[in-house]
Amino acid sequence: MNGNIGVYFILICVITISEEFGYRNSSGTQEAIIHTLARYRRQSTQCKSDQFHCDSNDCISKEKVCDGKADCPNSDDEKLKECAEVTKEPPPGTCLIPNHPNNGEYRLGLGNSTPGEYAPMYKVLVLQCEEPQYKPYPPALGVGADLPLCIDGKWSPTPPTCAPACKPLQSTTTTKVTCKHGDKILDNCDNPVHNTVAVFECEPFHEMPELSLNPDILCLNGSWDYPVPQCLPG
Description:
234 residues; alpha+beta; Complement Module, domain 1; five-stranded antiparallel beta sheet; two-stranded antiparallel ribbon; 2 helices; 17 strands; 26% strand; rod-shaped; signal; LDrepeatLR_classA_rpt; disulfide bond
């Protein structure tokens, strides 16, 4: 009697497994049993406290998690949310490429750049702004001047950003204009940006009464704070 109970129990298990996986023949029943046993092994396997449990049921050292190299068969040790927050030690002498600024993007020389990656030493970081509405800030002293250079793991000088640009200014036969930014005198006034000061001076035999009261104008968020003055024959 007990033997019959055991047989009935086995049959019930087999039928249950077969129905669960949709198998109806003997070969299907065998496959269902194998599948169930494999699933049971996956669920029952436990890794050590210093190990990471892969979805494939493998165990790897926790030191290999988020190390930039896939050690689990399906790479789930590198797909964790925490992996995006891990700060990896950069290669010696390289510089971290910063996030693109608003209204512009950084390039490595003439090529593209990917923020978060590392640029080799002595690479130049070039900023391209959405012109003509935006220009590099702070402005360069001249063409190619003050470009950030990767030296010993740091950009020198600090990479510029993009700022609203004011209308360019040029000297005329009657009025000389000089632009400066902070304590730096710019080569020209072709790319005035926020906080650029334009200083005006009359040429010989020309004058402008209001010039003595207001000899310069200031670029503020893309607009000059006063109308551009013009000198007239004296």
